[in-house]
Specification:
The chain has 198 residues and is of the alpha+beta class. The protein has three helices and eleven strands. It is elongated. The protein starts with a helix and ends with a strand.
Length: 198
């Protein structure tokens, strides 16, 4: 009898094991979820980055301005609406950055993608397009990218080089969190333009 207890105990433990998923949804080109519509419409123009050299450092301020058109019921019923930026295919990749959080304190090299925690940077309104009502969300905030060089001349050269770039694109991903699960991921890209700050 005792020889069966250990194998049964091991089977009971293993059958109770399961993978715990994180809160990152899997990519999809379909911006809807089986549990509801949860569609996201993007209205994102060219994004601007202003550059300035101060002493031996180059600062690149990315002025994020994103507009989303959302189903009002989806937005109201969701626990959270997330927006994630991907700078990995831009020349901003590799720079340190800082961004203000909702308490107006700088956060370094990370950003809260839950827009519930970014209320000071959000404007919400109701709009009607072709007879359909939407919640229009506008997200505006600045990412300050920076890098220190050994000499001011090197920082100026880096600025000159980045001002020549016209092909950078930042990627955006959005999803809802509702009923303890994520909606499908909706994605889009926007061109970055670099300019010299006054």
């Amino acid at each position: 009898m005792h020889k069966y207890i250990l194998p049964l105990f091991i089977i009971a433990i293993l059958s109770g094991c399961h993978k715990i998923s994180d809160n990152a949804p899997s990519p999809s080109t379909d911006a809807t979820s089986p549990s509801g519509s949860y569609a996201v419409k993007f209205d994102i123009a060219v994004q601007s980055v202003s550059t300035v050299v101060k002493q031996d450092s180059l600062y690149l301020t990315y002025h994020e301005k994103l507009t989303f058109l959302l189903n009002p019921d989806d937005y109201k019923n969701a626990s959270a609406f997330h927006v994630k930026e991907d700078f990995s295919k831009t020349n901003l990749n590799g720079y340190q950055y800082k961004i203000l959080n909702e308490d107006h304190l700088y956060r370094y090299n990370s950003v809260d993608d839950n827009l519930n925690n970014n209320v000071p940077f959000l404007t919400a309104s109701t709009v009607t397009i072709s007879g359909v009502k939407y919640t229009k969300l506008i997200l505006q905030r600045d990412f300050i990218f920076y890098k220190a060089y050994k000499l001011q001349q090197l920082a100026t050269e880096a600025q000159t080089n980045i001002l020549k770039i016209s092909t950078d694109q930042v990627s955006f991903s959005t999803w809802y969190y509702h009923d303890k699960k994520n909606s499908d991921l909706a994605t889009t890209n926007a061109i970055l333009t670099y300019s010299k700050a006054d």
